[in-house]
Amino acid sequence: xxPLILPALxxxxxxxxxxxxxxxxxxxxxxxxxxxxxxxxxxxQELLLEIAANNLSDQEMTTAIANLVATENGARGxxxxxxxxxxxxxxxxxxPALLTALSSSPAIVGELLVKNLAMAxxxxxxxxxxxxxxxAQGSQQVAQxxxxxxxxxxxxxxxxxxxxxxxxxxxxxxxxxxxxxWNYDQEQREAIRQAIxxxx
Length: 200
What we know:
Layout: H1 23-29, H2 37-52, H3 58-68, H4 72-82, H5 96-103, H6 106-129, H7 133-153, H8 158-168, H9 176-181, H10 186-197
């Protein structure tokens, strides 16, 4: 399985012209159920360009994002694009339309936010060790954006997931296999603990 957050995979600058002159058709014509992870990334890039160009109403944006995050592939593709996007204020200051869309799939979104917070935080440590300052800042930005979404959404079950992640840092727990899979060391685990503590 591909990582939930792929460090330095995307640095989407949303200053280009929108790709689709007919945004309503774009929203309506996608078969979201069958999207692969890679297709979800490509669609999310186009969608963010449309949002940045103010080509979608709040309702159209909510519908498009809600459809994406209704499946795991769609949600992963959306978040890997959205959380790493540059020149995109919505990622730092979520609007009610965005929050409504993400709240439509609390189980999928909540699980991804918890894991994204851990992965981005731990990846920032790796980049810092390697002397890759810009990449470290990018991962820190992803972690901060994820914290903001967690705080703003107040999804059911999310506080419990964060508690389970914290418990798994020191021993058996629901996220033990996840943490072992990425081979996080003590410094990374402590950074994840601090990131959890900063969630309001």
